Amino acid sequence: MSYKIEKISPEISNHLPELVVDYLNGVEFLKPFYQYTPNINSFKQIIEDRKKHPVNRKALVETLKEQYKSISAKPELDVLLDEKTFTVTTGHQLCLFTGPIYFIYKIATTINLANQLKKAYPEYNFVPLYWMASEDHDIDEIQDLYINGEQLDSEISYSGIAGELLTTMLSNFIDEVEEKVKVNQELFTLLKKAYKEQENLANATRQIVNDLFGSYGLVVIDGNHKALKQSFSEVIKDEILKETSAKLVEEQSKMLSEKYKTQINPRAINLFYLGGNSRERIEKINNAYQTINGKFNWSEKELLEEINESPQNFSPNVVLRPLYQETILPNLAYVGGPSEIAYWFQLQKVFEYHQQFYPALILRNSSLLLNASVQRKMEQLDLKSGDLFKSEQELIKVFLEKHQSYKGIEEEKKKLNQLFESVLTKASSIDEGLKSFILSQKAASEKQLENIDKKILKTIKNQEEVNIERIRFIHQFVFPNATFQERKMNVLDDTNWLGKELIDVIISDLDVLDFRLNLIFSS
Asked: Contact at 8 Å (CB) between 407 and 401?
């Protein structure tokens, strides 16, 4: 299948929040909240600054080798022992069947960034890395799948962390998904194989991502490991004893909120406790500590002892997870979506306090897939690419104005208003008491005129019903369930005519540092 790519600026597509657009445009207000501009030349300084923050590479590689035991075709891991090797990282939840298609775009962007850095700085090695958020426990966020216009619910009843969910619990859902997949059978078979071969969701996700992206050198890491968290134990203790991060995030957020809506709200203690197949928030009450459900209790001394002996039992939340990532990885940049980039801006002071490297922030590529059916309807309606991002009603209005002689009643409204103003002036000179009567007649006349307009538009719409249905089809395709396509559509969707080849297309043809929206047309 052949294709072509067209790029649309964020100002036209309107798919990015104001903060992110301002960041990409180098707006002065935001400059105190980050250190590096998102371009290839910045990485010369980024590499030098990262060198000042060494990590335990031996523990990192040993942990990765342990985590890859069940994977046959492994990526090269020993390269991470080399001090001239750095990572570029993205992270995501363990969504079923890869979840929304932007997950694919996110990892492909990370791979492209590593490739581009290797070309620019050949004396170094750059490893693209996917951080599995295996400790997340909000299963409701990941158990749905939107495919071929239908929302499928796995109906999983599970309260533990996502990574430990047993794949045997997915058997019925796998069968349900299989019934819906008509075109991308080869890709579905690959995903299904991982769920059948691996015991839990973390291992299955690692296999899926490795099968899809391993040939590009991508490494998958699960931060839920004792050896890795040992490197983070001093931060965990500081969080317990001083509750520093909440104050710092609130201070940063207050400054940001002068212009933007902030993304995250810190807790006094930004840690969870992993125990009894659950992940519960830790809170301090008086001089003692407990999980929010009261199941686990500690004195300060007992809690510090457990941090020393079992750091794997402590799980950072969204405030501390980025810091944890940078503590254990020789990382240069984080590739994230718009919301992620926004909340990283709230964390800079936390990094400064812990004297940890704060990486470059790179917005992931965004894409819109447009198949032949959509293109045909666009041609029939004479719609341009920029029109796709208008609301359904705006699209209908644009079409009718372009293809119908009727232009609405705005001119007639002006004339009616002028007429009544003239009458009101004359009547008021006779008796001021006539004013309210005349104004009521004016309102009634305006209402009648609007009813006439609605009747005419309804008649036109009935005449143009075929074309209006085409508009509705296009809008639903771009915004399924009123959500931008990449946040709903799954890679298995029949309208993804490229199938697994989509990965090759976006890795070979998308520019990681071109932040415009990519429209990918079949041709």
From this structure: yes
Unique residue bearing structure tokens 């890709």:
187
- State pTM to two decimals: 0.89
Pairing status of strand 3-8 against strand 517-522:
antiparallel
For residue 76, give the DSSP letter.
P
Neighbours of 88 (CB within 10 A): 28
* Residues 83, 86, 91: CA angle, nearest 5 degrees: 145
Query: Distance (Å, rounded) from C-alpha 391 to C-alpha 385?
Result: 13
Alpha-carbon gap, residue 130 to 87, rounded angstroms? 10
Place of tokens 């800079």: 348
**Tokens 């990282």, residue?**
89
Spatial strand order in the sheet of 331-336? 219-222, 125-132, 85-92, 331-336, 360-363
Q: What is the dihedral of CA 185, 191, 195, 198, to 10 degrees?
A: 140
In angstroms, the CA 136 to CA 278 distance is 10
Residue showing tokens 């293809």: 403
C-alpha triplet 208, 209, 210: angle, nearest 5°? 90
What is the chain's alpha carbon radius of gyration, rounded to the nearest angstrom?
28
Chain center to CA of 407: 40
At 74-95, the pLDDT tens digits run 999 999 999 999 999 999 999 9
C-beta neighbour count of 107 within 10 angstroms: 27
Asked if the model's pLDDT at residue 143 lies above 90, the reply is no
Name the one residue in this structure whose structure tokens are 């009547």: 427
- AA letter at 179: E
What residues form DSSP beta bridges with 8? 517
H/E element holding 509?
helix 501-509
pLDDT digits (tens, 9 = 90+) for 251-281: 999 999 999 999 999 999 999 999 878 899 9
| Average pLDDT of span 402-422 | 81
Instruction: Please give the C-alpha separations between residue 429 and each of 68, 228, 415, 417, 434, in angstroms, as whole numbers.
Output: 91, 87, 22, 19, 10
Residue 344's φ and ψ, nearest 5 degrees, are -60, -30
- Residue 461 above 80 pLDDT? no
DSSP-assigned letters across all residues of 225-237: -HHHHHTTHHHHH
In this predicted structure, which of 12-16, 87-91, 289-293, 430-434 has the lowest mean pLDDT?
A: 430-434
Q: What is the pLDDT of residues 158-206, one digit of tens each?
A: 888 999 999 999 999 999 999 999 899 999 999 999 999 999 999 999 9
DSSP state of 75: P
Query: What is the pLDDT, as a whole number, of residue 155?
Result: 86
Give the integer Cα–Cα distance in Å for 68 and 210: 10
| Environment class of 304 (CB within 10 Å of its CB; exposed 0-12, middle 13-18, buried 19+) | middle
Task: Report d(CA 265, CA 246) in Å as an integer.
Answer: 8
Q: Which residues of 232-256 are buried (b: 16+ CB within 10 A; e: fewer)?
A: bbebbbebbeeebbbebbeebbebb
d(CA 322, CA 338) in angstroms, rounded, equals 16
Residues 6+ apart with CB under 8 A from 484: 15, 478
